[in-house]
């Protein structure tokens, strides 16, 4: 007997995303550098950015590298309207000695 498709509650297998994720980029926390899957270096934006006690390293691709890139469609969600990729990597959280920041 075949299972009833109306009562099948299992989820279909999801296909992997056609776009690059942050895991596809090479982030070196010690050197504070980031390299895209095409091998281009991304520019670091600031020394450290803090958002809600999370210390992050932010990177942005250069327009000169991103516009002619052959991997552009996989890198950008909307390659027709965006020129470069922005990424953020968490470097940890700020420890507050019992003080909750507001």
Walk me through the structure.
- The protein is flat, with a radius of gyration of 20 Å.
- 8% of the residues lie in helices and 25% in strands.
- Strands 3, 4, 5 and 6 form a four-stranded antiparallel beta sheet that branches.
- It has two helices and six strands, in the order βββββααβ.
- The protein has helices at residues 63-66, 72-75; strands at 26-28, 33-35, 43-44, 49-51, 54-60, 86-93.
- It is mainly beta.
- The longest helix is centred in the middle third of the chain and has 4 residues, at 63-66.
Our estimate of the beta-strand percent is 25-35%
The gross shape turns out to be flat
What number is the mean pLDDT?
81
Question: Termini, distance in Å?
Answer: 61 Å
Secondary-structure element sequence? EEEEEHHE
Oligomer: single chain
Largest sheet: 4 strands, antiparallel
Low-confidence stretches: none
């Amino acid at each position: 007997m075949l299972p009833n498709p109306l009562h099948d509650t299992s989820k279909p297998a999801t296909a992997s995303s056609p776009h690059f994720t942050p895991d596809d980029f090479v982030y070196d926390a010690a050197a504070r550098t980031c390299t895209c899957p095409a091998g281009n270096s991304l520019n670091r934006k600031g020394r450290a950015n803090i958002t809600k006690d999370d210390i992050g390293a932010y990177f942005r691709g250069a327009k000169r590298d991103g516009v002619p890139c052959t991997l552009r469609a996989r890198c950008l969600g909307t390659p027709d309207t965006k020129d470069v990729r922005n990424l953020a990597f968490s470097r940890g959280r700020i420890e507050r000695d019992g003080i909750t920041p507001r």
